[in-house]
Amino acid sequence: MARSLLLWLLLFTASLSAHPEWKEAYCIGVIDDEYVFDFKVKFDAPSYYVGKHPKEATIKELDDLMFEPGRLAAAAAQAPQDFQRGTRVYADGVLVPLELVGFPTAAEVLALCQQQGEADRYPAIMTARFRGKIPRETGIVEVVYPEALGSVITNLRRGMDSQVLMTVAPGEKGLFKIGEVHFTVGGFLREGFEHVIPDGWDHCLFMLAMMLAAASVGEALKRSLVFTLGHAITLTLVVTGAIPSVGTWIEPIIAATIALGGYLAYRQKPAQTAFVVVPLVFGLIHGLGFAAAAADKLQDIGTGDLAKLLLGFNVGVEAAQAGIILATAGVLWVLGRARLETTPLRRVLGLLIAIAGTAIMAARIWPLLIGA
Fold first, then answer.
1. For residues 147-173, b (16+ Cβ closer than 10 Å) or e, as one string?
2. I want to staple 259 with a disulfide (CB 3.0 to 4.6 A). Which of 18, 315, 341, 357 is the partner?
């Protein structure tokens, strides 16, 4: 009896663990002479269907997906749209329209798992294929993958001229320089806006907290300008080489600014010095974070392009921040017109942002501790 119970416990524990043969996703992409970008992403389809990195998807979750009636078909029907939405290619900062040429169906995933056998049905490595037209004279191509894939080993090639092999982390852009880099104010403005919306969801949380802690829309917009000033200062110092680019340790500190911003919104009694000091200091920190994330691109910036960077990028950031502030103000105005008290809502939202910022900080510290 004891032996049977032990065996059952071992089997149950194994079912809750990730399959031991998990494999990282990888991509092979080629830009031909006509600037057609054809790339294939090979990934573990079952783990993607359950929305988890292959290392984190448990055998039980994968078995439930495969054997519960209708689950695999439903997941496979939604997966192509989600995968295409999470896969983005930029040419000199401009989003490139992508055609999804091929994607595994539920029947193909099931057939491969059955072919591999009962003990080795996971992982089931399948291929998603995309195609897009890259404008001629493009200097930099950037690739973003769905975050559920985890890190993606990427091999990109342009004809026989150039090739790059890199690992693209979740949420980051894999950068491939294929020609002379052309910087424009409009390109930087677009990147600045996208740095906040839609890419900078944590940045959006911070600006929401700044708005909730402000006494008026005008005060919130002034704080936003002070924040952008701090952002521009550290970005300038890094680009000009006055200070070195920081490492990934800046990310937990950025998360801490979100938590503190939420706390200030929760208090609803910010000190007078917070009007200038807090946004300025937080802006300095966030500027270091952007410079670290875009280090590969910033190294190509010359003195003549620095003004374009500072003008375009920071105006784009400020435009996005103003949009968040005005949208939040609009919601609060509607609630006020309905004669609802908004102060409790501000405090609750501030507390939630503080909790979220603390959780993000812990999540960003953990990989650094493991890596150390």
1. ebbbebebebbbeeeeebebebeeebb
2. 357
* Domain contains 1: no
Full 3-state SS string of 223-243: HHHHHHHHHHHHHHHHHCCCC
* CA 152/CA 24 separation, integer angstroms: 6
- Residue 129 carries which DSSP code? E
Lowest mean pLDDT among 64-73, 158-167, 253-262, 291-300: 291-300
The mean per-residue pLDDT over the stretch 276-292 comes to 80
**Is the separation of the CB atoms in 72 and 167 below 8 Å?**
no
3-state helix, strand, coil in the chain (%, to 5): 55, 15, 25
Final residue of a domain: which of 177, 209, 224?
177
Q: Are strands 25-31 and 152-158 parallel, antiparallel or unpaired?
A: parallel
Between CA 368 and CA 173 the distance in angstroms is 20
82 with 146: CB under 8 angstroms? yes
Distances in Å between the Cα of 22 and the Cα atoms of 25, 72, 331 are 10, 19, 46
Q: Are residues 116 and 246 in the same domain?
A: no
pLDDT score at 304: 62
Q: Which domain holds residue 196?
A: 185-371
Considering the domain boundaries, does residue 93 fall inside one?
yes
Contacts of 92 (CB under 8 A, 6+ apart): 135, 138, 139, 140, 181, 182, 187
SS3 category, 347 = helix
Kindly indicate the confidence band of residue 294, based on its pLDDT and cuts at 50, 70 and 90: low
Residue 112 in tokens: 């491969």
Q: Rounded CA gap, 323 and 22, in Å?
A: 42
What CA–CA distances, in Å, run from 251 to 109, 254, 349?
37, 5, 22
Residue 173: both structure tokens together:
């852009």
